[in-house]
Amino acid sequence: xxxxxxxxxxxxxxxxxxxxxxxxxxxxxxxxxxxxxxxxxxxxxxxxxxxxxxxxxxxxxxxxxxxxxxxxxxxxxxxxxxxxxxxxxxxxxxxxxxxxxxxxxxxxxxxxxxxxxxxxxxxxxxxxxxxxxxxxxxxxxxxxxxxxxxxxxxxxxxxxxxxxxxxxx
Length: 169
Fold this sequence. Notes:
The protein is α+β, with helices and mostly antiparallel strands. It contains 4 helices and 7 strands. It has helices at residues 26-66, 84-90, 97-102, 106-123, and strands at 2-5, 8-12, 68-74, 80-82, 126-134, 140-151, 157-166. The strands form 2 sheets. It has a 5-stranded antiparallel beta sheet. It has a two-stranded antiparallel sheet with strand order 1-2. Strand 1 (2-5) and strand 2 (8-12) form a beta hairpin. The model has no long low-confidence stretch (mean pLDDT 90).
């Protein structure tokens, strides 16, 4: 049973009996086609998962090379998600907005907080702020933080998505 993607036969599902010739009923053939489709779908999901992993690995490597990470804040829950490179810049993983802000240099914290709040309030959706990060090991890093306020389909402000680049050097 051939399985075609586009105009190319990508897979062939075959069952062979080596004991005797057998005639298969149309009902059995339909069931075999359905079984073959399950295998084809599983293989397609595996290809997609592998492509996504390659993409994720490529993004992580590009972020490492550029010393650029990304972060996202859920405005409703105050949860924060950070990339591996953001964690490297911060010297730790942060999971909440309070933890994120606690990592910002005290002299820069209020300005960053106001800039983000202004964007959420609707006075702007995209911002860029240069500030310092205080790492747990005591080292300070200078970063450039670009972020944008994301909206739901209904227009509500739901997330802040940003990139953070270490520009200390």
